[in-house]
Protein 1
Amino acid sequence: MDTFVLISITGVGLGALYFLVASGLSLIYGLMGVLNFAHGTFLVVGAFVGLWMSTQVFHTNSTFAFIVSMIVGGIGAGIFALIMEQLLITRLYNRHIDQALVTVGVALVVGAVLGGWFTNDLRLLPTPPWFINTVTIGKAFIPVDRFLYILTALALLGIFVGILKFTRIGLIIRAGVENRTMVTALGINVKRAFSAVFFLGGFAAGVGGVLIAAYQGGVTPLMAGSWLIYGFIVVVIGGMGSIGGSAVAALLIGITKQFVNYYIPGLGDFVVVILLVAVLLVRPQGLFGKVSA
Amino acid sequence: MSVLSLKDVHVYIQGSHVLRGVTFEIPSNKVTALLGRNGVGKSTTLKAIMGLRQSTGEITLDGKSIHGKPTYQIVRTGIGYVPEDREIFSMLSVKDNLNIAVRDSEPNFDLVYSLFPELKTRTAQRAGTLSGGQQQMVAISRALLNRNQILLIDEPTKGLAPKLVTEVAESLARVAGESTMLLVEQNLALVKRVAEHILIMDQGKIIFQGEPSHLEDADFVHSMLGVGGRHN
Ligand SMILES: Nc1ncnc2c1ncn2[C@@H]1O[C@H](COP(=O)(O)OP(=O)(O)OP(=O)(O)O)[C@@H](O)[C@H]1O
Ligand SMILES: [Mg+2]
């Protein structure tokens, strides 16, 4: 029972990190049809900005410093995403293959630049001392940092849902995910929604990057690749363009992976891929995806 | 006075020459019906006006060129568009489908709800779960919420049961009085009822412009549109 609680909660914590990576990826694909291979780069940019804040600006590992670094990391990644969108993606309007290739290029270039500059070694990200504490639930000792991941993901889920449900730009994004052409045929400049989605997606990935750095013990340009793959898996299972789908799929994968790794160490990734294949066979549009027209 | 004018408009789609020099003018405050057999380029003409298909030639709305502008700017000059396949947002509520179409500061919800009272009782319903007729009402309503210079309506009665055809026809007739409309329609009874001017298209060209009274002539209809329209 204690093991069950422990694995469940750490699974949810891991799922929270996956959600931060996947949510923006899902919206960007759903709205614009862009497979964004640079999403992992957003995460790394966020992590490096967060690292810079907490080591160069704050010189302390207080909770306040960490939270602010996380938010600034998110904003940094959001701005990076927006610049990439404005400079590269908008010029390749509706050329989806080219857009995807450009994002691959950005990922490679930024990865190489950061690798050259900082090396690929893990750089320690200062975290508040209480991160290594545990709380006892039943007889299980749960690392408390997991709760921060979960709360952050919930907060961002709330922000996303709030924007999507209650703002005009959110309405445009929801409609655009379904039929972009018709949105423009109603007199709406849908490109503004694209920019909003890139910023928000970049922000979530950047915040995720700082948390992932805390989770992994540090920052390295190599974070981009492995987390991007998980982001894509979450998006495919949850359904392109569905934030709720991403949340459910992220939880499913986080929990599955933790359980499998506990009982059959090392097989977690393998089972996640099996899950992916199963979903693709039974429901190719993903759990919450619409069937595309 | 003409509101919309097309001059020598050509459209190629995947190498095939779909519009082959379309030229016409749409008079203001009248309903102009665009007729023609299946596949002659009626929908493509509307899409070219909307900037949804790349074209060559001249297209002006209210004397100003709209050719080559992005679709959203063209629409903002005052076009209400009801596409052939309705293209409502099926995941969104009826209310959201209408709200997203609002451009004016004082959208005319009263008109829409008086034409289609059914929609008022279904504002929270997901548009994808509406019947085909109700979906068409949503599509037409989106175009009527704003003050437009012209309405472009593509086969509003396509695929509807006879009773709904009548209902949609009634509402079009009601708005027809005070608006400029370019209506693509195969239902000749409806065309005779609302149209004051007709254009007939064949193989990507306008082959006839004139009074709807010509449609009373069976030989004319036969030679221009083939043996009967789809519904008449
Ligand atoms: N996306 C497309 N790809 C290829 N061909 C197309 C496309 N859209 C239209 N066409 C072709 O262009 C021609 C004109 O099509 P259009 O839809 O304008 O006809 P229409 O007059 O509206 O016909 P209908 O009465 O059946 O709606 C047709 O031959 C059609 O096959
Ligand atoms: Mg058509």
Protein 2
Amino acid sequence: MKMIDKLLAQFAYASVTSDGKYYTVAVPKEKLHETASRLRNSALAFDFLMDIVGMDYGDSLGTIYYLSCTQFPAYVIALKTETDDREDPIIPSVSDIWESAGLYEREVHDFLGIRFANNPDMRRLFLRKDWKGYPLRKDYDANPEINPVPLTNENLDDMETVPVIEIHNGLKEEKTYSLFEKGEYVVNFGPQHPATHGVLHLRVSLDGEIIRKIDPNFGYIHRGIEKMSEAYTYPQILHLIDRMDYLSGTIHRHGLCLAVEKGLQLEVPERAHYIRTIIDELTRIASHLLGWGCMAMDMGAITAFVYGMRDREKIMDIFEETCGGRLMANYSVIGGVMNDIHPNFQRKVKEFIPYMRKMLKEHHLLFTGNPIARGRMKDVGYLSKEKAIALGASGPTGRASGWSNDVRKIEPYAAYRHAEFNEILRSDGLTFDRYIIRLDEIAESLKIIEQLIDNIPGGAYAAKTKAIIKLPEGEFHQRVEGARGEFDVYIHSKGDKYPYRVKFRSPSMTLVSALKAIATGTKVADLIMLGGSLDYVVPCIDR
Amino acid sequence: MEVKDICIKNMKYEDFKENEYLENYLKELRANGVNIAIAKLDDLINWGRSNSVWPLTFATSCCGIEFMCLGAARYDFARFGWEVTRNSPRQADVVFCCGTIVHKMAPVLKRLYDQMAEPKYVMAFGSCAIGGGPFKKSYHTVMGVDQIIPVDIYIPGCPPRPDAMIYGMMQLARKIKMQEFFKLPKQPDLSSPDNSDSSENNPETKEKGNRP
Ligand code: SF4
């Protein structure tokens, strides 16, 4: 008996199902907190909370917690719980077990109206306080007259007053507290600020030059993609997903394709796998180049930004020829790719590899070695490995702290198993590590592309699919490695051509909580640079 | 009739589409007659204005990346004198409204627009800013920025290519060149209550509201 089976056998009250790697554990909500903390503290230590999915099952509301452990990262547990109360649904919070749960629970609260007992912050996350209704409930009334376009800014008091609900020994207590004390010096960054990388609103409390507290405010680009997806067919959803995290849109789109293909049990031609992988890696390079350039620009080096964009244009040219679009490649489709590669594709990519290698050297010379840049990045923004895991800050940020979390290694998908590459890990977790890891990953991606580009097998570039794609009943979960962290797709299907519920894990959301952690106590002048070193994309957070 | 007086360097008249609206505008101007000295002065001022338009860096989502490409080496809008992107609305002449505007952002955009000094222009950039784009069915999207602020130029695409943006910029430059500078709306007096909505007493907004 495997360790995980032994562990799960201890929960007599839970119903456990498994397909070998993915385990589903359903527990009553009274037992949720106990189960969660035992999973966290067991020998397997499920310390990475990937996501919380809020569900509306029709007559009950529920949550699903996706857990993984960093020692054996291929194990995934879906911990489920439900509540029948639709009027005032309350579920115990797990934010004391996993720090990242704080934000996830706020998101579920915002979308479904579930309140989490003992979560220290039960404000809405994306929508304004005066928003009526909970959009992801199935009985939500989307009539625009109920929620017209507001004419005034949100009241700051509404932003600061934090409601909480506490349950101790069966006694329910509701209270509110103010986030900032009277007389605290609070500065607003954003939502319109060139250096927040999108429309993020940070409220920063300062003590002289030192940051005491940061309160991120989301929702300025909340477009309701998850709700819209419920009324769209799968091929239609693909177009929305590109526009969420537009810098690694191709990779995320690949993730959704894989999830649907998993459901359909569709065999994707090997050629498509190779092409997708190459395109994904090119996207990663483009994204890292932009991230690198923007971070340098945040530190005042505009030249680096222009250099980064110049190299990125080369990739955009390759995309344009093969995919038809520059930024929005719209390339992966269910079953393969949209069309075959352009005759010039291989030649251009092969030209690009030595060019980029040469340019990487130049970038290092220009910026990495620059004493001013070195001095600014030195010794600021420390994120420990434990903290990164607790916050769920995956991707390059986590790897810069020494957390091995590359999904391409954990669960190789597409053609990654045919390529040899290293997962770049650093141990210090400082700003400089997060900076340099991006450039190193570009070199690694070039290596992957180099191995694949000459070996693209012949054959069809896409499998045949039915005109109307209906997913069989069930739940499908797929992880991919986006440019800024793990991107997960969760699909709940009822056998229709529309999904019943789709949920995307946003890698950027956890990065903002990492910003909160690393920026507290530093100088306000470093805040922008620290944000740049995390390289989050706000529309991906807001969805 | 050709828009003779309004020439944009390196771009021929035939290369522009949608000339009709400018032609009508010019016809109207000519019919009313302008003092020759003022007209000459107008030309001079507008020549300067149209070649140094300062955009506000305002990008909410994907289209903003193409805007960044526009600012970088290959497309380089510095060639046209547009490169001084300002981070404060008080120093900006034009908002490139790049990206989706949602309910929570709408009052912020309105406020930014109100803070800009006259004469000011708005470019709706990408299908989201024009009419909601791919998020038309969403509960939280504003169906086009023209619901909140008047728009001068619409640039379709999802996202528009940087070349399309340059075309839009040229169109705006033509519009600027054509205006009578001294008759442009002045900064409204925000202290008096009936002037609180600057777009209402702006004679141009009515015309701006008409989509081509
Ligand atoms: S028009 Fe398209 S690319 Fe532009 S912001 Fe909207 S979705 Fe993004």
